[in-house]
Amino acid sequence: MTSAVSEKLGKFLDSANVRYRRLEWAATDAVARLKWSSRRRLVVTVASTTFAIVLALAGLTVAYVTLADLIHPLPYAMEKTAPPLSTRRLAARAQNETLGFGGIAYLSMPYRSDRQDAIELLGSVYGLNFTYIPGVDGAAITDKAKPLHHYWLRPQELGCWRAHVDAWRYLLESDFETLLVLEDDVDFDANIHDIFELLSTQMQRNRLRTTPQTQHERRTAPYGLDWDVLYVGQCSDRSNENRLDLVHIYQDPNVPSRHETFDHFVGQLQSLGIQGRNLGKVRAIAPAWSPVCTMGYAITRKGAERLILDLSYRGITAAIDIDIIRKLQQGIIRGYSITPPLFSAWRVDGAKDSDNQGLENDQTQLGSGNRNGYSHSMKTSARKQMVKLLDLHNWDDVDRVIPRRPFPTMTAEQEAEEAEEVRKAQIEQKEIDEAWIKRKLEMAQIMEQWGG
Ligand SMILES: *[C@@H]1O[C@H](CO)[C@@H](O)[C@H](O)[C@H]1NC(C)=O
Ligand SMILES: *[C@@H]1O[C@H](CO)[C@@H](O)[C@H](O)[C@H]1NC(C)=O
After folding, report:
1. How far is the CA of 101 from the centre of ligand 1 (A)?
2. Cα 236 → chain centroid
3. What is the position in ligand 2's atom list of the atom closest to the CA of 174?
4. pLDDT tens digits, 355-371
5. The pTM is what?
6. Which of 88, 89, 90, 98 to mutate to test the pocket of ligand 1 (most atoms within 8 A of CB)?
């Protein structure tokens, strides 16, 4: 009995097990199918959403690019016509070694021979003739020579004032009509000649002039002569809020991108109505109103006369840049500023490298050199480019141009021939030596006979 029952029971259990397994497989299968399809749904959703976002962004970009000119029109249309030949010819003088000015002067404290080296090096590389004007130690100026109200100035500011007045005097003593004045830490764009040539065409057609161009200007003055100071290297400026309409805008392929442009200049351009896509493409000429620092500016002969009259003959009221700002705002000096400017400071150690922050006598601070220097608002820094221009790999050039010649090798025959020659020469030498010894012995015998 037991065997029959147990056999039935076994069969029953087996079939139950099989049924159970089938159920389990079906369930697992269903779960797997469910997971897979929901995963696929998720992937499809994410992909289509991403695609939709990308499509929307692309659409917006296209719309922005097409509509940008409508959204951000320039406040005043730029001159579209090509300048006449006479204008272009005069502008081409910016290619000469004084950039179309009468001269270029740079101020540098006599002890900063490192900076003088750098300026002379830049001059040689970029075809510019810089004339050195020594900086002045304010404490060395005798009391009688100090201008009226000089007590407003710290000794460093007084020295700075003196050096700039010396530069203005240099213009009066020369036969120049204009002079570009730079400080010794400037950087500029490697395409400086082209940038000034373009500036010249714009200055000749400047819509901000109050008097028409004279015949004399048309013939000899690439930047016109209707200004006293032309700021091309201000640290910052702010336009006259009552006359924000006074702006002459022009496109310049060498202008730094918006991202490379110092925020302050972007802000000023925006205040003059230059927005959006136009930032990073154009420069603006505007009346100088609040230009800070004296790192780079040009003066005319009339400008030098007015500056010496108002900032020396009549006395001074503040540090030189602040004093010039006062005269500009009072309207007794006429100036323009170019934004973004064409000169910027080359910084190697932050403010501590400055010679007019009261640190000029602290020579214990060692500079880290020009290696890590930088300047802002420059598309192609002349100082960085110079290093590349002078870069030489002589041995690579030699290897590339002059193929290596193998050393001449001798055949076995030639080698044997040479060995034979050497052997003969040795024998010959031996004979000579022996003859000589023999001769010496003979001489000694003769001497002995005579001496005896
Ligand atoms: C460069 O051109 C200007 C403008 O014509 C001129 O005054 C100046 O003398 C020239 N400089 C040189 C070095 O020839
Ligand atoms: C640079 O200018 C000075 C002053 O005008 C002049 O004496 C000198 O010859 C010029 N140097 C060169 C290399 O042209």
Report:
1. 6
2. 18
3. 5
4. 664 444 444 455 566 77
5. 0.75
6. 98
